[in-house]
Amino acid sequence: MGIAAKFQRGDVLVAACPSREVLQHITSRWGVLVLIALESGTLRFGELRRKVNGVSERMLVQTLQCLEGDGLVNRIALEVVPPHVEYSLTPLGREAAEKVRLLTDWIEGNIPRLLKAKAAP
């Protein structure tokens, strides 16, 4: 059986599974935040950087490149003066954003409990 056939669905617990790389891109700190920020719609690079507070330009570029490579983000370079680039979620990206949104909503809703557990000896 070839590797492509073996990973028709994917198995994240197998070291050679390509789903691990995608998982890393989606669940990185900036990957999660970019997906959530783009849920609201198309954003220019500067708008996205302001919305994802604290991300450096370099990290945002890297994150966007990874997510674009995974088919989760669309990048459109507009030939206007001055030139600018817009980013949006693909249909696959919208699905991924829904999933990470569930996790982030749970974290935000449980932050008092999480902080209390973290502070416990």
Automatic annotation (TrEMBL):
<keyword id="KW-0805">Transcription regulation</keyword>
<keyword id="KW-0804">Transcription</keyword>
<feature type="domain" description="HTH hxlR-type">
    <location>
        <begin position="17"/>
        <end position="115"/>
    </location>
</feature>
<protein>
    <submittedName>
        <fullName>DNA-binding HxlR family transcriptional regulator</fullName>
    </submittedName>
</protein>
<keyword id="KW-0238">DNA-binding</keyword>
<dbReference type="Pfam" id="PF01638">
    <property type="entry name" value="HxlR"/>
</dbReference>
<dbReference type="InterPro" id="IPR036388">
    <property type="entry name" value="WH-like_DNA-bd_sf"/>
</dbReference>
<dbReference type="InterPro" id="IPR036390">
    <property type="entry name" value="WH_DNA-bd_sf"/>
</dbReference>
<dbReference type="GO" id="GO:0003677">
    <property type="term" value="F:DNA binding"/>
</dbReference>
<dbReference type="InterPro" id="IPR002577">
    <property type="entry name" value="HTH_HxlR"/>
</dbReference>
